[in-house]
Amino acid sequence: MIAVREVPQLTPFGIGVHYSYYRLSKEAVAQQIEKQQAELSTEHSLWMVASSADWIKANRRDMDHNRSSFFHSHQVEQYRRVHGDSDPYVHNGAFIAAAVGLGYNWRIIGPNAIFKRPSLRQSINRLLACDGQRLHGTVILQTHDGPWMQACKPRVIRHSVDAVALARELGVL
User: 95: closest CA among 4, 12, 155?
Assistant: First the structure.
């Protein structure tokens, strides 16, 4: 899961584990984090991540960037409840995984995260990176090449790029 690489202590609880575990040894906390991270890869948790991602995409313009992941996970639960889901519960960590996976900028606040929507340029570069490219000013550079995406000498592959038009072309807008 991409989010666990980005947030190494991501668990269903959020960032880290419940406060009661921190009274134990560091090794016990690490074991508990590893155990809980395995739960994030279950089909049920992945469904929570997918539901959270759908909610974020549908509400990205109205999402309050001063509220925590815990607050937003409850909004997803309400959305699922209204749409007839018989098990609307969403882990805080599932919401964090969805937002991180969608490229949102984030910062940690205790076991929660606060998210800020990525800039247009960040969104474009995230998609271009899949092909070893990046937007630099008004040009697109090829920075990695080949089947294993090995670094190469940067070369211009497209001049005079309008970021908004490119965003529409890539499906960002």
Answer: 12
Question: Residue 150 is part of which domain span?
Answer: 121-170
Are 77 and 13 contained in the same domain? yes
**pLDDT at residue 96 is higher than 70:** yes
pLDDT at 113: 93
Provide the greatest CA pair distance for the chain: 58
Residues 15 and 77 in one domain: yes
DSSP 66: T
pLDDT at 125 exceeding the cut of 80: yes
Say which DSSP state 172 is in. Answer: -
Q: What would the pLDDT profile of 62-74 be if each residue is shown by its tens digit?
A: 788 889 999 999 9
Phi, psi of 155 (to 5 degrees): -135, 145
Q: For 64, what's the count of Cα atoms within 13 Å in the CB-facing half-sphere?
A: 9
Residue at which a domain ends, from 118, 141, 156:
118
SS3 95: helix
More confident residue, 23 or 125: 125
Mean pLDDT, the chain, rounded, equals 87
Structural domain total, the chain: 2
CA angle 152, 124, 167 (to 5 degrees): 130
Q: Are residues 162 and 77 in the same domain?
A: no
